[in-house]
Amino acid sequence: MITISKLNKAFGDHQAVSDLSVSIKPGEVLGLIGQNGAGKTTTFRMILNFIEADSGSITWDGQPLTEKERHKIGFLPEERGLYQKESIEDQVLYLAELHGMNKADAKEALTDWMNKLQVVGKASDLVQTLSKGNAQKIQMILALIFKPDFIILDEPFSGLDPVNAGLFMDTIKELKEQGAMIIFSSHNMDNVTEISDQLVMLKQGRTVLQGPVQEIRESFGRIRLYVEAPDFSAVDYSAMDGVNRVEKQGAGYLLYLDNENAGKAIFDQVTANGYIPAFSQQPPTLAEIFKTEVASHG
Question: Is the pLDDT assigned to residue 83 strictly greater than 90?
Answer without folding.
Answer: no
